[in-house]
Amino acid sequence: MTGIYYADMLYVLRAAGCRVAESSTTDGWQTRARSSGGFPSAPLCVFAHHTASSTSPANDLSYMIDGSDDAPIGNVLLDRDGVYWPIAAGASNCAGKGGPSTFSRGTIPLDSGNTRGFQIEAANNGVGERWPQSQMDAYFAGANALNAHFGNLPTDIISHAGYTSRKIDPATASAVEGPWQPSSVNSSGTWSLDDIRDECARRASTATPPDPTPPPDDDEDYDMAFIIINQDTGQPALVYGDGRMTGIDGTSLGAFVAKYGDPINVEAATFDDFATK
């Protein structure tokens, strides 16, 4: 297991006011990734997709996680009610061939979107199904929160169509509900990338910054977590916000945070490395 796994992404989304959910199908998302593993560095952008499906979140997740030869597809699913579901904390198979694409922190090389971008798959058939305002609000809030978490600008977002001419998503512009009305750039109704970026910037400038303080370490579970790698065995150690621990014995998260500070995603470190800091 190599690279960066964003096991804290549900906390990031919730801190931005987004709703999140998990299921038995999403179990294991914290260490799930494409065959190349985690992200080689912080993603340079957020990708905006639509699923091109007309089914339930459960069915979408089943396909994206277990049912496709290309699984995992995407990092999160944004359902029609505006709820985020985790798919993979590491790199996923979603962007495919495309690019190169330049952002504030660098350029995604040709055909490298899977490993250099974070993928949001929004549930919509893409051929005229309505985009409810609650889903749209969550789309922008989530993209802005994730980009901020990665150290990016709000405008570091790209549509799948903006990355490759093979795709039309997100679409269709005329089906978007609420005050934001994107223009269409083709006969398929693909949202204008300039309009998406302008709206991300506008919402970021008017949004109340999320509280960076994690929830208290009490009896309630929360999704903040960190991953470390055992350098001797190569096995990951995943620590959850309620104190559950995989791969390490004898230390609660509360005690760890009290001594060493908030948990973070870390690659290629051992628990002893933390204890010496």
Characterise this structure.
The radius of gyration is 18 Å and the shape is globular. It has two domains: 9-206, Lysozyme-like; 225-275, no CATH class. It has 277 residues and is an alpha/beta fold. The strands form three sheets. It has a six-stranded mixed beta sheet, with helices on both faces. The chain has a three-stranded antiparallel beta sheet with strand order 9-10-11, with no helix packed on it. The chain contains eight helices and eleven strands. The two termini are 24 Å apart. Helix 4 packs across helix 6. Strand 10 (236-240) and strand 11 (245-246) form a beta hairpin. 26% of the residues lie in helices and 15% in strands.
Indicate the topology.
Elements: H1 9-15, E1 19-20, E2 45-50, H2 57-67, E3 76-78, E4 83-86, E5 101-103, E6 106-108, H3 113-116, E7 117-122, H4 133-150, E8 157-159, H5 160-163, H6 193-206, E9 225-229, E10 236-240, E11 245-246, H7 253-260, H8 271-275
Parallel strand pairs: 1-4, 2-7, 2-8, 3-7
Antiparallel strand pairs: 3-4, 5-6, 9-10, 10-11
Helix pairs in contact: 1-4, 4-6
Helix content class: 25-40%
Our count of domains comes out at: 2
The CATH H-level superfamily of the largest domain is: Peptidoglycan recognition protein-like
Which assembly state applies to the chains in this document? single chain
Strand order in the largest sheet: 1-4-3-7-2-8
Number of helices: 8
Please give the CATH class of the largest domain.
Alpha Beta
- How far apart the termini lie comes to 24 Å
Structural class: alpha/beta
The proportion of strand residues reads: 15-25%
Our Rg estimate from Cα atoms comes to: 18 Å
**Form type:** globular
The ordered string of helix (H) and strand (E) elements is HEEHEEEEHEHEHHEEEHH
CATH topology of the largest domain: Lysozyme-like
Low-confidence residue ranges: 216-225, 240-253, 263-277
The overall average pLDDT, rounded, is 84
Could you describe the largest sheet, including whether it forms a barrel? 6 strands, mixed
CATH architecture of the largest domain: 3-Layer(aba) Sandwich
Number of strands: 11
